[in-house]
Protein: Tail specific protease domain-containing protein
Amino acid sequence: MKYFLFIFFALTISSCASVKKDNQHLTTSISPEKMREDIDFAYLKLQELHPKFDWYISKTELKFKFDSLKSTINKPLTPVQFYFKLQPVIAKVREGHLSLKIPAKKFNRKEIKVLKSKKGLFGRFEYHVEDNQLYIIENKDSVENIKPGTEILSINEVPVSDYLQKYRELINSDGYNTTFQNYYLKDVFFNFYVAEKGIMDSAKIETLYDGERKIVHLKRESKNKVDKEKDKAEKKRTPEKKVNDYVASTSSYNRNFKFLDKDSAVAYMKIQSFSRTFSNRFYKESFGKIKNAEVSYLIIDIRNNYGGSLYEINNLYSYLASEPFILVKPSELASSVTPFKTNYFRRSNPFHYALKSLLYPGYFFSQLFSVYRGKDGVAYYKMKENKSTKPKKNAFKGKVYVLINGGSFSASSVIAAKLKFEKRAILVGEETGGANDGTVAGFYSYQKLPHSKIDFPIGLLLIQPNIDFSNTRKGVVPDIEINQSMQDILDKRDVQLDWIKNEIAKEKETKIQKNSL
Structure:
């Protein structure tokens, strides 16, 4: 027991020292020479590890952009300042999964405890980005009586439009699609802002609502007893929370299933993230209910779903297919050795390092036997999703509608592209944020720039749906395009889902009329 207490104490001291050292580095300026070395490092690692870095930009043009950036680095910068210089160039690769991790302050346990005892400052609202404007569309706590539809004009006297323009340069979707940015920017705007400005206890914002400008002072409030009890309740993992994958931080479920009509003819499945957590059970139970109810129509909603597990979408597709299928094409690698460059021991304390060392032989051989060279001389990685999968016994045979928008990214785009190509579903909504012809993700090599210490994860697998490619360099285009305005959102009017409901109602009515003849 004394030994374990000593180890725990040593790890705690080490962790505190590491936090202090990392935070000190954030405020230390880096010389231009060292930053230029970091730029060269990022460029070389991109060429070495990324299997498709020149998909949307030529090698010559990309090299020019890196060289041009180096020529502008002429004074010392902090890691955060350097991030805002380098990330816009990384974004020019136009691969949505490829991004530097913005340097952020770390907190010790005491600081984390204090933050958890308080409510958020900006995180208590839901936002909407349109053009170069930021709106509040939901104010659950009625903070300062700010009404939904209010535009935030400035934060601490700096125009929001300046931040939006700056932060847009940091975000890259797959290819030349334009729908992704606004959806993603509304979610990460204040991540960028806080990384740049630091965590605040108060902020002055200028708002505009119904033609009236107003100055509002936001304050970080302490949580009361009711808030703390609510936090405890949300942490409890009930069976329902497990199977629907409850996310306490957002007070929402990753998955939901319900019937939309009294006769259970229309089933609705909302999937917020393909997290894989308890997904087997969710789909088994949901499609069991669908079969028992003899459902005729299924609506799958993957709007605002940033993706996740290939395993989960392969499993979902097996409940929709009528014959054996292959979800994705063979997954290309930059070289046969890149799977061994995933930084297996990253973020390991002494205990984790020892445990991982024991497990490393198994990891090494699993990677070794997963790599093969194709007849074309290219290195590929074996995955279950590259192989033929049989449909489930209770696979749904009725009509399928899929709701998509610019927030449908990564795995969401893969399954949407496959369903559209096979004509298994009617896609309704907006062009997806992820590319129709695939993306680079899978698993990552976690690189760290040597001087700025900025993390640079690089996806190693080219993931492409098993379809004939569109070669449009854009997202999955819906069969029926319907855009949702901010006013629709404020009025809680789902025009995309309503269109499907109306189509189903028309089809039902037509069937009734035919049967009555």
Remarks:
- Residues 139 and 146 are 7 Å apart (CA to CA).
- The longest helix spans residues 2-26.
- The chain has three domains: 12-91, 118-219, 254-333+384-516.
- Residues 118-219 form a domain with the Pdz3 Domain fold (CATH 2.30.42.10).
